Structure formats: structure tokens, C-alpha cells
From TrEMBL:
<keyword id="KW-0812">Transmembrane</keyword>
<protein>
    <submittedName>
        <fullName>TRAP transporter, DctM subunit</fullName>
    </submittedName>
</protein>
<dbReference type="InterPro" id="IPR004681">
    <property type="entry name" value="TRAP_DctM"/>
</dbReference>
<keyword id="KW-1003">Cell membrane</keyword>
<feature type="transmembrane region" description="Helical">
    <location>
        <begin position="12"/>
        <end position="40"/>
    </location>
</feature>
<keyword id="KW-0472">Membrane</keyword>
<keyword id="KW-1133">Transmembrane helix</keyword>
<keyword id="KW-0997">Cell inner membrane</keyword>
<dbReference type="GO" id="GO:0005886">
    <property type="term" value="C:plasma membrane"/>
</dbReference>
<feature type="transmembrane region" description="Helical">
    <location>
        <begin position="283"/>
        <end position="305"/>
    </location>
</feature>
<feature type="transmembrane region" description="Helical">
    <location>
        <begin position="178"/>
        <end position="200"/>
    </location>
</feature>
<feature type="transmembrane region" description="Helical">
    <location>
        <begin position="420"/>
        <end position="441"/>
    </location>
</feature>
<feature type="transmembrane region" description="Helical">
    <location>
        <begin position="362"/>
        <end position="382"/>
    </location>
</feature>
<feature type="transmembrane region" description="Helical">
    <location>
        <begin position="325"/>
        <end position="350"/>
    </location>
</feature>
<feature type="transmembrane region" description="Helical">
    <location>
        <begin position="142"/>
        <end position="166"/>
    </location>
</feature>
<dbReference type="InterPro" id="IPR010656">
    <property type="entry name" value="DctM"/>
</dbReference>
<feature type="transmembrane region" description="Helical">
    <location>
        <begin position="100"/>
        <end position="130"/>
    </location>
</feature>
Amino acid sequence: MSTLQITVLSFLLLIILVAMGVHLGVSLLSCSIVGMILAVGNYDVAVNMVISTAYNSLKDYIFGVTPLFILMGLLANLSGASGSLYDSCHLLFRRLKGSLGYATVVANAIFAAVTGVSIASAAVFTKIAVPQMRKHGYEKKFSVGSVAGSSILGMLIPPSVLMILYGTASGTSIGHLFVAGVIPGIITTVVFMFTIWLTIKVKPDTVPNMDEAVQTMGRKERMSIILKPWPMILLILVSLGGIWLGYFTPTEAGGVAAFGALLLVIANKKFTPKGFLEVLRNAGVSTGSVMFLLITAQMYSRALAVSGAINLVEDFILSLHMPPMLVVIMFMIIFLVLGCVLDSTSIVLLCMPIMCPIIANYGYDLVWFGIISIIAIQIGIISPPFGMSVFTVKSALGDIGSTDGDDISVIDIFKGSMPYIAGMVVVLVICIAFPKVVLLAL
């Protein structure tokens, strides 16, 4: 078979399997084997190549970063950090109208540096923030929109599972991706806060006046609540700052962060043998899932390379004689469209093995391309019709155990998220137009 036929057949098979609901890792594995057999024409050789790829995929020391940061996030959640962060941020913004909205965005940004997963942020803060905002009279679309919209920060601010997946698929330094994600993450947080301010200016009735109970709270009590989450923030600064300054590798930073989070659990008197074993079990399950995807993604990349599919697509793009920046914009549009129907992980693992060699051939920095790609892909998780964060928020509303979510529809959440989509588009344009914004910290 020709390279074109193999490429089309394997890609169609992959799309069909994913559309049928087959696990992404299983789909990638199946297509890798089929593509490899068709490319080399020998079953035994193809299987041996797949096996060697699987063996070599995760033997690098850097992949220890995955279980360690996952463990850190789970331990931090066990310590009660999410609730403390939200209460602290609420008090810090108490003098602003819409303080709970600002608190949701900032707490999500800080929590993102712990979890690395947008869906986790959406689930946690739906249960913490939405009941509080509804109780104080915040408009329902504003309440759920601020949670769903700011959950995007979970994959943008390091440590991010999506950055680890991208680094693996593209061969880019995960440590450099972590450092490069900090400034765009801060810019996105500021843009989201401006979005809230603008929303309140345009529609003042969206939020109530300042919370009287918070305003009358004693100074000593306020300071106690404000300072409670700072050990966790210090732990984040130490781990990420250590990577930036070169004191830690990403894997060592993950070890420091996980150990520090365990100390916080003990210090907050939340440690129980049962709870700790549950955290370890969840960390193992999550790590296994991510690692399986990493292995099958490497297999898929190898199959594409062996079949000549990557060179075929690259030659086709180059034959169009498009300006390089137009190719980048075209890829971003593809991400925006795919983000509406696929999850972030699938998009990264499907697209990056083909796109990254093309981007590298044009001379662009793959760290920069990774960050702008993650921004574009993350817009999709709050975009209709299948925005995953939106449906996560809706699902979490049903778990609250009250009437808070009864009158809130999926349409309400999508509508509430629209201003944040606009904000993310602004951030994406800034990062594309000014690459230094992304690469400044490197």
C-alpha cells in the first residue's frame, strides 16, 4: 500500500474507534499496530517495533513527574486546601462588588498549580463556590460561568497533565513547558478578573452588594482565614520556583511537592490511614491511565513516522506555500473546532505527532507552540456542544444535595462561560502575536 493509503486508512480507523466510544489509548494502540503492519509488511517485525516503543516510552526519569504531581494534588485536596483557598480569596477581595466571582477565579488559578487538571477544578469549585454565590444572591449564569470559565486554568498553569502529554508527544522539555506556562497563566487570570469587572459594569444586577457579614468580621478572624492557605502557596512557589531557578528537575520538584502536601495533611489533622490509602489508590489509577496514554501516543507517533505519514502531511502543507504564521493560525482554528467535540487529551495525542514536525520545520519554538496550542484546546472545554467543563459543572451541581442546581441548565452554564471564551481568545491572540510573553521566563 502507498503512504497516502496507509495514512488515510489508519486515521479513518482512529476516528471511527474514538467515535464509537473506544478508549483513546486502545484506539491509538490498535491503529499503531495496524499502521505498522501495513508500513513494514511483516507482522513479527511490526509487533517487535511496537513492543520496543512501549518499553522505551516511559523509561526516562522525567516521567516520574506524573505520579508525583498527581499525588501532590490529591494530598492537597485531602488537606482541605481548596476550601481554605476560596475563603482566603473571598476575604482578600471583600471590598469589591462581586468578590465571590474574583475569589473563584484566583482560587482556581492557585488550585490549578496543585491539581493540573481542569475537570478537577470544575468539580471542586462547583461544590464550594456555586452554593455560596447563589446563597448571597449572585445571578445563576454568572455563578456557574465563573466556575466553568476559570476551570480552564487547571491545564494552563503548571504543573499540567496536558503539558506532560504535549512534552511527550513533541519531544519538548516538560520543565521548560512548566516554566513557560506561568506568565500566560497569570495573564489569563488577570483577563478573567477584568471579564468579571466588565460584566458587573455592564450588568450591575448580576451580583449583589458587598457581603455585610464579611465586612463586619473581626480583623483577627479575617487574618486567620486569609493566612490559612499560605503554606500550600509557599509549597507551590518552592516546587515551581525550584524548577525555574534550576535547583530541581521537574521530577524532584514533584517529590518535594508531594512530601510537602503530605506534611500539610498531617499538620491540618486530616491524616487517617483509610484516607491516605484512598489517596494512594486514586493516584495509582490516575497515573496508570496517563501512562497508558503516553505509551500508546508514542506508539502512534512511531507508526506515523515509519509509514511516512508525517512527511506526507508536511510536504503537503509546504506545497501550499502558505506563510508560516498562517499555518500556525490554521492549526489553532483546527484546535478550536476539535475542542468543541473532543477532550483535550485526545486532541493533543492525535494532532501533535503530525503538527509539531511541521512547526519545527518552520523554525518556531515548540515550547511556544505547545502553550498556545493548550490555550486554544482549553477554549474547547467550555465551548458548545460538548464542553467537558460545562458538563462537569452540571454533574457536580447534582451532587451538592440541595436545590442549588435544580434551576440551572447546561445552556445557562454555556451562556455564563461565553465571556471567558472571549477572554481566552484575547490571551491566545496576545501569545501568538508576542511570543516573548510565553518565552520570557525561559
